[in-house]
Amino acid sequence: MARVYLSVPHMGGEEERFVREAFATNWLSSVGPNLDGFERDFEARVGLPAVALASGTAALHLGLRLLGVGPGDEVICSSLTFVATANPITYLGAQPVFVDSERESWNMDPALLAEALADAKRRGKLPKAIIVVHLYGQSADLDPILALGVEYGVPVLEDAAEAVGTLYKGRPVGSFGAVSVFSFNGNKLITTTGGGMLVAQDRAHVEKARFWSQQARDPGIAYHHTELGYNYRMSNVLAGIGRGQALVIDERVRQRRAVAFAYRDAFADLEGLTLAPQAPWGLHTNWLSCFLIDEAALGCSRDALIAGLAAEDIESRPIWKPLHAQPLFAGCRMFGGAVAEDVFARGICLPSSSSLPAADFERVVEVVRLTVRRSREARAAGEPPCAST
Ligand SMILES: *Cc1c(COP(=O)(O)O)cnc(C)c1O
Of the four, 170, 258, 281, 389, which is 20 to 30 A from 372 by CA? Predict the structure, then answer.
């Protein structure tokens, strides 16, 4: 039987037509109609000017620089996220200050953000930016976070890498912050094999990011440079994949949600295995189907479940390891931490592809149930947990 992966690319059918057009017209570099078209697709969706870049990480790097982040600065950042959220802070010579999640959405806790900002003010060193992550396709509670940004005069950057298609109070995430970024990495809700998008309230920000992304070459025929640039532009070929994928975003959201809710229903009788919270303020795309395990109630540990699935060639993963617990960020300031640590310790992501075949879905459900049953039997017999898997 074929391996079941966590999250695989899912083409909609029109991508090759856009890519063939790029070949037919020889627009094979970092200029062309697909780039313009893909940017317009996002402008229409988010309602803000957009620039297509080589990755979400590149978009974060440029976004933080747009907000003036530089050496010695501090940037407040969600702790429960993928490392790519915070790495660009370090690229710029600045330091992250981490904030824990709240239970309702697993995203930045506004009360702890308030503490972090009050502390920064007391120390006389306000952060240059606040990075709020919309984890696994669920929006953070943006209203109180944006209000704190206004109160302290600190701009908010939305890391919506995992949240293409996500809504907060009916509006797309990425439309709230001063700057926001999306990712089209191969495992995300839509993909260009690799790529990202930066959007901003201020059109001048987007134009500056575009300029920096192409080595910051000043206008004129000479190779004249006054600012530091990067090679961060998306290619017109990959933007063709993006145009095809942009046509199916809403369909992919429906499919991802359907997978998550089908697992929830299939496990309804398994006490101790609970779908990630669906906060009342938004539309959670459930980019990944995440569950929390209560080991005592389930009778099986998170790691035993991952091992049981792996033995049947099914890929599953823990929730992101919080950044404040990473050796890379040892010594960084942290506010709270218990929620992120608990979600990491007990959380699991199950195969979540929008193209997940029904037979594979059934197999995942069956192996989860089998693993739990064996573990419960082993525990009842006094054996070490999950010894049989
Ligand atoms: C994927 C991801 C990124 C980085 O995007 P890339 O396109 O892979 O560079 C940033 N932040 C989060 C939360 C992500 O999941």
Answer: 258
**From the CB of 57, is ligand 1 less than 6 Å away?**
yes
Sequence ranges of the domains in the chain: 15-249, 250-380
Specify whether the CB–CB gap between 322 and 84 falls below 8 A: no
CATH number of 250-380: 3.90.1150.10
Nearest CA to ligand 1 atom 5: 56
Per-residue pLDDT tens digits of the chain, which is 389 residues long:
799 999 999 999 999 999 999 999 999 999 999 999 999 999 999 999 999 999 999 999 999 999 999 999 999 999 999 999 999 999 999 999 999 999 999 999 999 999 999 999 999 999 999 999 999 999 999 999 999 999 999 999 999 999 999 999 999 999 999 999 999 999 999 999 999 999 999 999 999 999 999 999 999 999 999 999 999 999 999 999 999 999 999 999 999 999 999 999 999 999 999 999 999 999 999 999 999 999 999 999 999 999 999 999 999 999 999 999 999 999 999 999 999 999 999 999 999 999 999 999 999 999 999 999 999 999 999 876 655 54
Query: What gap in Å lies between CA 307 and CA 385, rounded to an integer?
Result: 12
Q: Which CATH class is domain 15-249?
A: alpha beta
Q: What distance in angstroms lies between residue 223's CA and the mean position of ligand 1's atoms?
A: 32
Both tokens assigned to 108 = 């930045």
One-character DSSP codes across 104-139: TTSSB-HHHHHHHHHHHHHTT---SEEEEE-GGG--
C-beta of 81 in contact with ligand 1 (< 6 A): yes
State the number of CA atoms in the 13 A half-sphere of 287 facing the CB: 26
Q: Any idea which residues carry the catalytic annotation?
A: 188
In degrees rounded to 5, what are phi and psi of residue 283?
-105, 110
Give CA torsion, residues 289, 295, 296, 298, to 10 deg.
50
54 touches 194 (CB < 8 A): yes
Three-state SS for 221? coil
- DSSP secondary structure string for all residues of 161-210: TT-TT-EETTEETTSSSSEEEEE--TTSSS-SSS-EEEEESSHHHHHHHH
- Alpha-carbon distance values, 345 to 77, 144, 215 (Å): 20, 28, 42
Structure tokens at 214: 């192409």
